[in-house]
Amino acid sequence: MSNFNRVYITSDGEPATGLSPTFETLKNVDDGTNFTPQPTIEEIGGGWYRFNISLNPFEHLIGVVDAGSSILDPSERKIPIDSRFSDFEIDNKQVYINTVFDEDTDTLTFLVFLLINGTILQSELTSVSIAIKDENHTDLFTVSTSSFTNGVAVVSKSGPGLTENRGFYAIATLVTTNETIVSADSYFTIK
Q: Which structural domains are found in the chain, ordered by start?
């Protein structure tokens, strides 16, 4: 599953454009190994750059982006990154939500699963719904499914209302045979 990341680069406090940033390091937190292949970093505009990393839900990567030698201030040239799935712990349960926007098809996809004591709950989930709200917490739409693959639900939404440069909140409600679990707000932006 892809995890889209953004990094903001400045030079003397102003947005830096026209750069070709690269990864100085990109490592897996769990075992310290280098993550390969390192993704290409491309410019969005106004100092914003993006890269796409294919992660499984358990991977957690950290690294440093090098903005290049034209950025003289080391605090602006070397930018730390932290890439992982969103997670929210509720008691001993963790609800994971990953959000991916495909700009070519205007499709928003959510991958949701529940960990209990570090293990994906596979057999007791009966449904999941995800409420999408705008930055003012106004309801936009809800997507839901009762289909799971090894305890993981994947739901998608296409169409109007999914515009770039906008922030959204996703609130997942997972229903098991024993209880209903509501996650904390997961904030995401479409860039």
A: 2-84 (2.60.40), 86-190 (2.60.40.2140)
Strands 42-45 and 48-54: antiparallel
Digitized pLDDT (tens) for each residue of the chain, 191 residues in all? 445 677 889 999 899 999 999 999 999 887 899 998 888 999 988 898 988 876 655 567 888 999 999 999 988 999 988 776 554 444 556 677 777 766 667 677 777 777 666 666 666 677 888 887 777 778 888 888 887 777 777 777 776 555 555 667 777 777 777 777 766 556 666 65
150: left (phi over 0), alpha (psi -120 to 50) or beta: left
Report whether 127 contacts 144 (CB < 8 A): yes
The answer to whether 115 touches 94, Cβ cutoff 8 Å, is: yes
Q: Which two tokens stand for residue 171?
A: 């609130």
End-to-end, the C-alpha distance of the chain in Å comes to: 18
pTM strictly above 0.70: no
Is residue 168 within a helix (H) or strand (E), and if so which, with residue range?
Answer: strand 166-176
Greatest Cα pair distance in the chain: 58
Please, what is the Cα angle at 72 between 4 and 22, to 5 degrees?
30
